[in-house]
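Field reference: sequence -> structure
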Amino acid sequence: MNAIESVRAALARVIRGKPEAIDLVLVGILSEGHVLIEDVPGVGKTTLAKALARALALDFTRVQFTPDLLPTDILGTSILEPAKGTFRFEPGPIFTQVLLADEINRASPRTQSALLEAMSERQVTLDGQTRPLPAPFFVLATQNPADSQGTYPLPEAQLDRFRVRVTMGYPTEAEELEVLFDRKATDPLDAVSPVLDAERVGALIEAARAVEVSHDVALYALRLVRATRDHLDLEQGVSPRGAIALYRAAQARASIEGRDYVSPEDVQALAEPVLAHRLRLGQQARYGGKHSAQIVREIVQSTKVPA
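Structure field:
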C-alpha cells in the first residue's frame, strides 16, 4: 500500500462513505492549497480535518471562530515586559502546520481577513515585522451554509484563496448505521495513527508539481476559466489565481491516481470544486434560482474536450 492509499484508508475508517470528499482534501494538500469544507453541522467536517492532521503527523491547531474573535486571537500579539522595557511577541495559533478554522463564517469579516496574508504568502506581518509560518502550512476551514443563523458571508478575496471547496453531504442509511456502531465504545478518531510526516508530505507535493500537463490540456483548463468571465449569468468570473488553482489541483489529482500526466478528466472532475466558489452570480441568476456549481457544469458540458 503506497502513502496515498494509507492516508485514504486511515481517513475512511473515520469518515464513512465519503471517498470523493477525502480525495478532494488530499488534492488540496498535495497542490499546496487550502481547503474549505462546507455543509450543515454534524456531518463530519471537523472530524475529517482532525483525522487528516493526525494521519499526516503535522502540528495541528484548532480555532473555534465566533463573533467575538479578534484578529490578534489568531495572529498573536506583542506583550510588554515592564522589567526589560521591551515588547515580546506571543505567537497566535496560526503558527502551526495545519490550522483548523472551525466554522470560519461565524467570525466577522474583519477577523476572517486576518488569514489573507497567511493563506496567500505563508507569512504574518505584525507591528511592521514579517514572520514566516512553518512549512508546510495549510488552512482547513469548515463553514456552515450561508443562510445558517449567526453566519457572515466569506469575502470574495477569502474564498479565492481556498484551492478547493468540499461538500460532505449526508451518509446513506447503511453508512450512518456503521457510524453508530463505530462509536459504540470509542471514537474512531482516537485510533488514527500517523501515516506520513512533514518531510514525506513535502515529497508528495513536489511529486505532484512534476506531473506533466500538455499544452492542449492546459489550454482546455484555461478555456473553462475564461468562459466564466463573459458568462451572462455571472457578475464576476474566475481570476488568474483560480486558473493556477485548477492547474495545480489537476496535477495533484493525477498524482493521487498514480499517473505522471494530467488528463482532461482530471480537469473536468475538479472544475466544480475548484471554480464554483470563486464565482459571483448576477442578480437575475440569483433570483432565478441558479447556482454557481450549475453554471460550471454547463460550461464543462459546452467546452470542447481535447482529443
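Note: The two ends are 33 Å apart (CA to CA).
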